[in-house]
Amino acid sequence: MDNLARAYLPRIAGLALAGASFLAVTAAEAKEITIWCWDPNFNVAIMKEAGARYTKTHPDVTFNVVDFAKTDVEQKLQTGLASGTADALPDIVLIEDYGAQKYLQSFPGAFAPLSGTVDYSGFAPYKAEVMTVDGQVYGMPFDSGVTGLYYRKDYLEQAGFKPEDMQNLTWDRFIEIGKQVEAKTGKKMMGLDPNDAGIVRIMMQSAGQWYFDKEGKPNITGNAALKAALETVGKIMQADIYKPANGWTDWVGTFTSGDVATVVTGVWITGTVKAQPDQAGKWGVAPIPALAVDGATHASNLGGSSWYVLESSAEKAEAIDFLNEIYGKDIDFYQKILQERGAVGTLLAARGGAAYEAADPFFGGEKVWQTFSDWLSKVPSVNYGVFTNEADTAVTAQLPAITQGTPVDEVLKAIDSEISGQIQ
Amino acid sequence: MKNGIGRIATATFTYGFLGLMAFLSIFPFIWMVLGASNSSIDIIKGRILPGEAFTANVGKFFTTVNVPLVFWNSAKVAIFATVLTLAVSSLAGYGFEMFRSRHRERVYRAMLLTLMIPFAALMIPLFIMMGKAGLINTHIAVVLPSIGSAFVIFYFRQSTKAFPSELRDAAKVDGLKEWQIFLFIYVPVMRSTYAAAFIIVFMTAWNNYLWPLIVLQSNETKTITLVISSLASAYYPDYGVVMVGTILATLPTLAVFFFMQRQFVQGMLGSVK
């Protein structure tokens, strides 16, 4: 018995030691990066693809992409940051661009600055502006909401307009065309949800203005672009060329059902437009109409979001390297997410890839993605500030007054006082 | 003294009104079932006829969602929460009514006042507590805050007022200890109250959204309400699939309600006595 023990003990001990060191090695090397984001078919699927690509070259790093609703991600992030419970936070989180400044400024030190690592000059300029605080740039730019004017070629042709007639319009011309479209085809020009200020934001940013100036102070009463945007919405309503929609679903229904001739919104709607196979070949894409103010352009943005690394993350270095390797450099990745998910990234070099250069039969063989990425580089930079959502609420509340013909200057004053009241 | 026409008019009005109200309350349910059989586009267009996409929607739901795990999570949370809440809160309700002390009413009122504090205000302190206890992302953390429920204690105390104190006195004479009286006399007598409380607590726990959302952090621990919320918030939500999820999420509460309906009504009547 003793002999047996003596013979086997060293072996057992050796095995145990080997086992222990093996365990220790795995513990030191295996890293799991936890990511919170929303939309299982879009951000979640894209992040899983990105993670799989990184794991291929870095087998020791794996990814846990957790899928919550957008408002849920925001709520959880807010609670986690406010409670100071660091282990309750993920390593990477997705934040919508409109809300980025709020988190960055309300929780200084909570997010890791990426200025030294990421080459922001390769991205659409407006995107880096969104995530800059005191000269430091946080976050990895992700998808874009670069805007376009989607139009039904068939309806417009019936009304006597060719695709050339839709290029570089002004909003006044757009309204004129809308009147003729209705007279000739009986279709309204666009869907409009009176409780959604998205169209106002699109118009305002296209002229390089926002609810706030570069210093983050409210910019309402002296904001020529906002004034022109509200006036334009008023004109659209007076001309009665719109189909009213009640909420997002209803608004989407205005064009999926074929009831309206155009849609002005972010590029992410392309997937929804294309979800109607019976409308294939009937759609065209043009730049959005311009306002009649100084600095007006035909490019703007609606929505879009970016990835942020938490400073408290145990895997901070890996998380930053991952974002930089995939989202900062991998052109092929951007082709794949464009093809599979219709996601237009903000890395400008991605437009050279095959997927961006492909012609889309749904849009009559137009190279729509190339077109959108051209506009992307032209989107005017603005400071979304901390209170975009509050300002948006104030504007939405005043939209009915515009419909009733209240002078725009009075409406601006009302918006201004509501915002000042809210953010004090 | 009413004449025939008057009576018919009254009846028409009564049944018309009742019918309308019944329709209003049952319509969301019909819409949910019809929606599950339609494609997302048809739902957006407002189609209220049965469609042909039901199997496709069910298939998509089962491929995107780990259904057994999610339901297991929800069931675990709801059942533990219900059993523990009933055990703890009914004891408290019994105690409040049976034992007299100088400060009883004051404590009771203070407890009722906590009903006025919105959960959103308690959320962050509670979250910090759970963080310190190392319970973040566990189902224990979901269940714990709900088991001492002021509302259920209140409900049990009100119902206990109808519990005949002679029964307790008789049991005492027979030599039963307090815990025996509770277990063998009180619980069987109050079973319709328990049934009603069971339905209320089970539904609340099953449908609970905000707190599980805050405290659960991974795909493996999520409950059905969180999964549906995330499905519905996509940029292009597939409403047909969301409706399938909603139906499945409704079934357990529906089943509980139908099985206990009779006791529920009795329990509700009992509490007003």
Automatic annotation (TrEMBL), chain A:
Residues of the signal peptide: 1-30
Principal location class: periplasm
Protein origin, superkingdom: Bacteria
Keyword Ribonucleoprotein assigned: no
Sequence similarity: Belongs to the bacterial solute-binding protein 1 family.
Cellular component terms per the entry's GO annotation: periplasmic space
UniProt keyword Mitochondrion, yes or no: no
Transmembrane domains' residue ranges: none
Keywords: Periplasm, Signal
SUPFAM superfamilies in UniProt: Periplasmic binding protein-like II
Location of this chain's protein in the cell: Periplasm
InterPro entries: Bact_solute-bd_prot1, SBP
Listed name of the protein: ABC transporter substrate-binding protein
CDD domains: PBP2_TMBP_like
Species of the source: Sinorhizobium saheli
From TrEMBL, chain B:
Chain ranges passing through the membrane: 12-34, 77-96, 108-130, 136-156, 181-206, 239-260
One Pfam family per UniProt: BPD_transp_1
Any one Gene Ontology BP term: transmembrane transport
Domain ABC transmembrane type-1 stretches: 71-260
Keyword Repeat: no
A single cellular component GO annotation: plasma membrane
Membrane topology summary: Multi-pass membrane protein
Keywords assigned: Cell membrane, Membrane, Transmembrane, Transmembrane helix, Transport
Localization: Cell membrane
Main location: membrane
Entry similarity comment: Belongs to the binding-protein-dependent transport system permease family.
Identification of the protein by name: Lactose ABC transporter permease
